[in-house]
Amino acid sequence: MGVVLALAVIAAGPPRPIAASGQIGSPARVTRTFTIPPDRPIIVDATVADVSISAWARAAVEVQIERRAEKGADLARIEPRFDDRPDALLISTRQADGPPDRALRASIVIRAPARAVFKSVQVVDGRILLDGLRGAVAVDLRQGSIEGTRLAGTIRLETGFGNVDLRQTELTPAGLVRLRAFNGNVTLGLASVPQHARILALTFNGAITSDIPLTMKDRFGPRFGEATLGSGEPVISLDAVYGDVAIRIEKK
Prior knowledge:
Layout: H1 2-12, E1 29-34, E2 42-56, E3 61-69, E4 81-84, E5 89-93, E6 104-113, E7 117-131, E8 136-143, E9 146-149, E10 154-161, E11 164-169, E12 176-183, E13 186-190, E14 197-203, E15 208-210, E16 215-217, E17 223-229, E18 235-242, E19 245-249
Parallel strand pairs: 2-5, 2-6, 2-7, 7-8, 7-9, 8-10, 9-11, 10-12, 11-13, 12-18, 13-19, 14-18, 15-19
Antiparallel strand pairs: 1-3, 3-6, 4-5, 14-17, 16-17
């Protein structure tokens, strides 16, 4: 009997990796490194995930993905996908089919050059952390909070249910800051008072506070504040439907 079993194992060949849920497929944790042109867009697409993107000194893009599944969930539904195309680098842990299953969660950690272009970061449910990016980043998060530190360049961040909170933000001449929350607060912390900017702040059901003097329209209906500094460019646009909007100067 032992000889027969041994022969069967040999015939089957080496075992394939088994994910944490017991499904055969990719390991629960994978790391990939890509060398791409500086202007090649990066796209991140996930269903339920916590995403951390930070700048480092290397020219390469490093991606670490860890998948987790609660008991009974099928880890194979969030197979990591990497597609290094000429027009974009795609990083995905989108669930294969059906409605979002919050028992299946991915952790995506990306380190990239500071001036990398994150054309699209789309997540249904999770948390987004951004640090040190100075190129371009666009985030669309349906449920969860977005936090950013030391960002510059073109910044477009939007969440449906959660807060948007930036600290030590630098406004650059060709840049843009656009922050939006449907149900949550929007807070912009600036490293210093910009010499040139056009500031627009709007909330339908909340309050607006600012360390930069704004011309306010808040007697009836939505609350709106604006200011023009210097040439009036670049633009800072902040808005919330159900939440407060705040502008803070962190070095007074």
